[in-house]
User: Fold this.
Amino acid sequence: MSLNDYEQVAAAREDFVDFLLRTGRAAAARSAAAGPINPGS
Assistant:
């Protein structure tokens, strides 16, 4: 694997981690807005 390939993989991994962080925050915000999981208890 050449250095250029490695740089492309590293950049893609950073993009993927950023994507996971953003979707994770969005999911956390949605679940917080939805309130408790089981409001009947």
In short: The chain has a mean pLDDT of 87.
